[in-house]
Every structure is written in C-alpha cells, then in structure tokens.
Amino acid sequence: MSDETSQLGGARRGAGRPPGSKNRVPSKRAELNARLLEIVTPRFDEFVQELMRIALEGKREGDRLKAIAELFDRALGKSPEILEVCDEDLPVIDELLARWRESKPE
Q1: Distance CA 26, CA 61 (A)
Q2: Phi/psi zone of residue 79: left (φ > 0), alpha (ψ -120 to 50 degrees), beta?
Q3: Which residues contact 90 (CB under 8 A, 6 or more apart)?
Q4: Do 72 and 48 form a contact (C-beta atoms < 8 A)?
Q5: How many Å from the N-terminal Cα to the C-terminal Cα in the chain?
Q6: CA-based nearest residue to 75, from 90, 94, 55, 102
Q7: Residues 25/17, Cβ–Cβ less than 8 Å
Q8: Hey, which of 46, 49, 63, 79 would disulfide with 58, CB 3.0 to 4.6 Å?
Q9: b/e map of 44-67 (b: 16 or more CB within 10 Å)?
Q10: What is the predicted pLDDT for the residue at 60?
Q11: Closest CA to 55 of 14, 24, 96
C-alpha cells in the first residue's frame, strides 16, 4: 500500500477541528437559531409558565411527562444518557409532583 492510499479515509491523528472549537463560518442553522433566540427571549418566562401548567394540569400523562422533561432539560441541562421511564416509575413521579405542589407558595 502506498503512502497516498494510506491517507484516504479513516481517522487520522490531528485531523479535524479540535474539540470545543467554533466553526469559523456560521451555518444557516446558527443564523436561524440566533434569530429564534431574539424572538423567544422576551417571552421566555411566559413559555416556562406554560410548560409548568402542562406539567401540572395536562390532561394526558405523556404531555405532562414531556413538559417535565423539558423543564428539567432547561434547568439542569440535557442528560448525557437516555433515561427510560416505565409504568412502574409513574407513581414515584406523581408523588414527587404532589410534594412539589404542596411545597410551592400560592
């Protein structure tokens, strides 16, 4: 195998952008995200309140769980691993929500 073919494909030491570095040319997605952030930021508190309302009063369990997950993601950051919730976990979640409702000031 020649040196030329050994350089094709596969990972090579030192290749690519270093971890944590920023792209020099912003993508269209970055531009759209910046525009969206400008639009959403003034109403951020309103959106969080709506997520709280859905988490506490949503008619469907799936909607409540999704709203709770979104609130946790915003407050704590996204989990690096996927957490599976099954039916036997729901009573624990309901109990945590009940305790939270009791502790919040009116």
Answers
A1: 39
A2: beta
A3: 61
A4: no
A5: 74
A6: 55
A7: no
A8: 63
A9: eeeeeeebeebbeebeeeeebbeb
A10: 93
A11: 96
Rg of the chain on CA atoms, in Å: 22
Rounded to two decimals, the pTM is 0.47
Residue type, 106: E
C-alpha angle 93/106/75, rounded to 5°?
45
Number of neighbouring beta carbons within 10 Å of residue 71:
15
CA 93 to chain centre: 19
pLDDT digits (tens, 9 = 90+) for 34-49: 899 999 999 999 999 9
Q: Where are the alpha helices (DSSP H) in the chain?
A: 3-6, 28-40, 44-57, 61-76, 90-103
